[in-house]
Amino acid sequence: MARDNGRFPLAQAVPMTQKTVLNQAHRALGARMVDFGGWDMPLHYGSQVDEHHQVRRDAGMFDVSHMTVVDLEGPRTREFLRGLVANSVDKLVKPGKALYTCMLNPKGGVIDDLIVYFLEQGGRHGDKFRLIVNAATRDKDLAWIEAQAKAFDVNVTERSELAMIAVQGPNARERVLGLLNAAGAKAAGKLTRFSAAEVMTRDGMPLFVARTGYTGEDGFEVVVAEPHAVALWNALLQAGVKPAGLGARDTLRLEAGMNLYGQDMDETVSPYEAALGWTVALDGDPDSGPRAFIGREALERQHADGAPRQMVGLVMDDKGVLRHGQKVLTDAGEGEILSGTFSPTIGKAIAFARIPVGAAGNVRVDIRGREAPVRLVKFPFVREGRVQDGI
């Protein structure tokens, strides 16, 4: 933001930092708070590394109430989503099932990555779906979704009255199930990966519980009405789930091989260039032909001819840290580090990089003028607490 002699210009409005309903709960626990995309969020509660290991070894929880929940409803909602996202919502046959996908522009660039939940079939106003989109892309996502939805008469409702807590780790599900009533524990206990259910706690608190997450560990993402969020947070604390901040969330998701929007991909990057080709369904049927989703033509060209760039995993065996923006040198040309960090689980620096397609040869990273050797590896680097072979 522009400044004039150290002061904000009088005519320029200063954006207000937003706070989740759990803001005071974080501060009471001694969290170090930072600005994250305009939100006042906890970076850590004392030790980012301890929080990372807590999630890998036991159970930790994250306030992700800054994420945007959007409900879609109408007789043509499924038809609308067929064209909105690159994955096929026709895979969502039973209510409660979820799908990870990308929403693209006409050039095949990623507007956002999101999760689609199938909530209800044939309700009073038609099929009902739920989207969970990134906090930093809220405004552009809502504008894009609403613009595309007009032709299908789909009702788009942002659920800003909802909060969300992600409980992650090998013991996370057990801790959440212990808070639910008998019917809720039975329903949530049966959930497979990428599915969800509406349940109740023992004291009557309604929850939307999804077996999804952003850490590479098992667990639940729990959506709760804001008036109940602090009580749920405190109940989880009492159950032995420790809080974790954005710092641990970032190292966990990178170890798990999960993209961060805006850093690993954006509207200039296709799913194929972001190692997300598995989220693209170039499907169709003999009667109606190929499913016409936004960006399909561009993706079909890349699928046939190959994308010019690829996203790869890097490990540096020498001391040092790999950071965003560093130049990557390969025999096929130059690339750059996307996300990079020191991995607490592995004990080495790891990174995503985007490099030209072709024989990479000996790969190096330019660290302040020094060419540091790195190894090209497959990711995820860590899956459910275990360092993967070859890392």
Task: Name the features.
single chain; 391 residues; alpha+beta; Gyrase A, domain 2; Elongation Factor Tu (Ef-tu), domain 3; six-stranded mixed β-sheet; 9 helices; 24 strands; globular
How would you describe the overall organization of this protein?
The protein has 391 residues and is an alpha+beta fold. Among the domains are: 23-62 and 162-254, Probable tRNA modification gtpase trme, domain 1 (Gyrase A, domain 2); 308-391, Elongation Factor Tu (Ef-tu), domain 3 (Beta Barrel), CATH 2.40.30.110. The chain has nine helices and 24 strands. It has a seven-stranded antiparallel β-sheet. A hairpin with a 2-residue loop joins strand 20 (364-367) and strand 21 (370-373). Helix 2 (48-57) packs across helix 8. The longest helix has 13 residues, at 226-238. Mean pLDDT is 94; it is low at 1-14.
Secondary structure blueprint with pairings:
Blueprint: H1 23-28, E1 32-36, E2 39-44, H2 48-57, E3 60-63, E4 68-74, H3 77-84, E5 98-104, E6 110-123, E7 126-133, H4 138-149, E8 155-158, E9 162-168, H5 172-177, H6 182-189, E10 196-200, E11 206-210, E12 219-225, H7 226-238, E13 242-243, H8 246-255, E14 284-285, E15 289-290, H9 296-305, E16 309-316, E17 327-330, E18 333-343, E19 348-356, E20 364-367, E21 370-373, E22 375-377, E23 382-383, E24 386-387
Parallel strand pairs: 3-13
Antiparallel strand pairs: 1-2, 3-9, 4-7, 4-8, 5-6, 6-7, 9-12, 10-11, 11-12, 14-15, 16-19, 16-22, 17-18, 17-20, 18-19, 20-21, 23-24
Helix pairs in contact: 2-8
